[in-house]
Design a protein that fits this description.
The chain is mostly helical. It has 2 domains: 239 residues, no CATH class; 101 residues, 3-Layer(aba) Sandwich (abc type-2 transporter like fold). The chain contains 14 helices and 4 strands. β1, α3 and β2 form a beta-alpha-beta unit.
Amino acid sequence: MTRRALFFMRLRGFLRKEMLQIYRDPSSIALAIVLPMVLLFIFGYGVSLDAENVPIAMVLDDSGPEARDLAARFDLSIYFHAHYAKSITEAEQWLTQRQVEGIVRVPQGFTADLYGGRTAKVQVILNGVDANRARLVQGYSHGVLQKWSEFRIARGQSAQHPAVTVAQRVWFNEASVSRNFLIPGLITLIMTLIGTLLTALVVAREWERGTMEAILVTPLRRIDLLLGKVLPYYVLGMMGMLLSVVVGILLFGVPFRGSISALLFLSSLFLLSSLGFGLFISSMIRVQFVAAQVSIVTGYLPALFLSGLLFDLESTPRFIQIFSYIIPAKYFVAISHTLFMAGNVWPVLWPNALALAGMATLFIALAYRKMVKRLDS
């Protein structure tokens, strides 16, 4: 029998053993199939970076028809839910008690200034405890005021003409829905969990259960062990990725403008880097609990906080930006956002793909070197 035939015979037997182990282990199936669905539902329905139906207090010190028309614009906006206060004192009390997130006050003399050719002022007071939400509400308020002025100008009515008018258009995410940004990035977290956490447990599980000693006395070589541990979880990871993509597109309506072939190729690079990193952890740590904790701290948490999924890395300190370059999830977040929102923009995809290919090669090589057939390794 040739060496190649022996190699495939050993690999086939070891792969069958690993697949049976996965099939008989409910935790692996749960992490690969159930957990991605739970994360998708949590992020899809429970997490939103948009501000809608924000409660605000309307204070009309000027009771003219123009002031009431402006207040109606806020009330009809999908971003606001207006509550009319009798005085600014009552509105401030609502704001202090967190019953409203802001105050829009139309001062006395608003109508007179409007028809007198003077700048008609409107006061907007916001709750700044959550700075990001306050900036969103501030932008929405300016948008409502600008639209109100544009409608009056179009009808030939008195309004303050701005020195500059802006004609804006949003590319790639025309509806400006945060779900279209979160769901593609969430696929990165799902693949990180499957790739890093599951493989971080596979070798440690063998040591804890006492089956590693039996494996060490077999004719299996290091390459057989490596492929036998990587390939089954590669299949699981790709299944989890494809299931997440289908649910994101069909259930949440996230657009996908790239090609499936590009998605499969680039996600394979990221998954291999995650599998190599997880297997490297697993080959060094023989306790499942410790291996799981290390994989979460070094794999999942950086992917969540330092990949650009939830926070803009450009606004972080310089040393954090430099540190993020060693995190594989950073590159795949950029890839997934590009494929979903913009399409196959290869000047963006290729640099990230090369970085992932280099990391996958490095981590798999480290795992291969560390995976030795000795009891004292």
